[in-house]
Amino acid sequence: MSQSTPQAITIATRESRLALWQAEHVKALLEARGHRVTLLGMTTLGDQILDRTLSKVGGKGLFVKELELALEDGRADIAVHSLKDVPMELPPGFALACVMEREDPRDAWVSPHCAGLADLPPGAVVGTSSLRRVVLLRDALRALGRGDVRIEPLRGNLDTRLRKLDEGQYHAIVLAAAGLKRLGLGARIRAIFEPEQSLPAAGQGALGIEVRADRHDLIEALRPLAHQATWLRVAAERTVSRALGGSCSMPLAAHADWLGERLRLRGAWGEPEGQAPLLRAEAVAEVADLSAAEALGARVAEALRAGGAHAPAQEA
Ligand SMILES: NCc1[nH]cc(CCC(=O)O)c1CC(=O)O
């Protein structure tokens, strides 16, 4: 087994509670291997724009660009990201050094009064922050005959979103279980959506560590933090997104899970404004390496595209 030399590592991180938790988590793992680790807190564009739905802001990588600048000019060595927020194509000169073991990838239902969708009072308002959740929720509500329920945008970090719920602006909100669990807020989760009900986003619940591609020393040091079973899952998921021209602002879900040795990949895509039913696609394959995972992703993307899925028209 190769043993990397202990070194001083600076982690660039956003300053939301969740981002800091994630950076501290990586810091502890690296310190346990003998490295000396410092955090460099930063504010990103995605943290500053709180009044608009992110898909309308339109940029890819709103949460990562400032962190990449810090890697570029050497103020920091690595950046820890929620993989869901990392663009499918990293800019030239950057690499994903590793993907770590996944937290719960599912969506969570948080509501003080309602146990689930079927339990909502007439005309209820459900808050959520991604186009994916909007199209999946709309599909589920349609199946329940609940055209009266309104889905409204919900922005802000986790604490802000929970506060808006507690203030009564929404009857319920839908957000990632992983973030709540990491921050010790798992008790707020009233119900978990199984992937059949709300198919997760590509990479949801997984952490990725980004470095400058020329930092082979760091890629070596980070190798022990990688979790191969997660990496193959998210590689398949992210390929669906990439093939459809995707950013996290697409109405697209892609989620892979292991059926023994075989990887099952499911995808879903919804027309954001239209009334067309949700498109779904699924494929299963034996996957032992990244290229097999990507081939599986390409199959599911092709099936969705054949059904009519496409990249957002206004995106550059
Ligand atoms: N888009 C925001 C975001 N990015 C990562 C997480 C937390 C969960 C994760 O690691 O995927 C969240 C919150 C959410 O979607 O509710």
What do these coordinates show?
The chain is an alpha/beta fold and 316 residues long. The protein has 3 domains: 1-102 and 206-226, Periplasmic binding protein-like II (D-Maltodextrin-Binding Protein, domain 2); 107-192, D-Maltodextrin-Binding Protein, domain 2 (3-Layer(aba) Sandwich), CATH 3.40.190; 228-307, Double Stranded RNA Binding Domain, CATH 3.30.160. Helix content is 32%, strand content 23%. The strands form 3 sheets. A 5-stranded mixed beta sheet has the order 2-1-3-10-4, sandwiched between helices. A 5-stranded mixed beta sheet has the order 7-6-8-5-9, with helices on both faces. The protein has a 3-stranded antiparallel beta sheet with strand order 11-12-13, sandwiched between helices. A hairpin with a 2-residue loop joins strand 11 (252-259) and strand 12 (262-269). The chain is globular, with a radius of gyration of 19 Å. The termini are far apart. The ligand NCc1[nH]cc(CCC(=O)O)c1CC(=O)O binds at residues 82, 84-85, 175-176, 178-179, 204-205. Pfam families: Porphobil_deam, Porphobil_deamC. Residues 9-218 form the Porphobilinogen deaminase N-terminal domain. Its EC number is 2.5.1.61. Belongs to the HMBS family.
Mind sketching the topology for me?
Blueprint: E1 8-14, H1 17-31, E2 36-42, H2 45-48, H3 54-57, H4 65-72, E3 78-82, E4 94-99, E5 107-110, E6 125-128, H5 131-143, E7 150-153, H6 158-166, E8 172-176, H7 177-182, E9 191-192, E10 207-212, H8 216-222, H9 228-243, E11 252-259, E12 262-269, E13 279-286, H10 290-307
Parallel strand pairs: 1-2, 1-3, 6-7, 6-8
Antiparallel strand pairs: 3-10, 4-10, 5-8, 5-9, 11-12, 12-13
Helix pairs in contact: 9-10
Bound molecules: the ligand NCc1[nH]cc(CCC(=O)O)c1CC(=O)O.
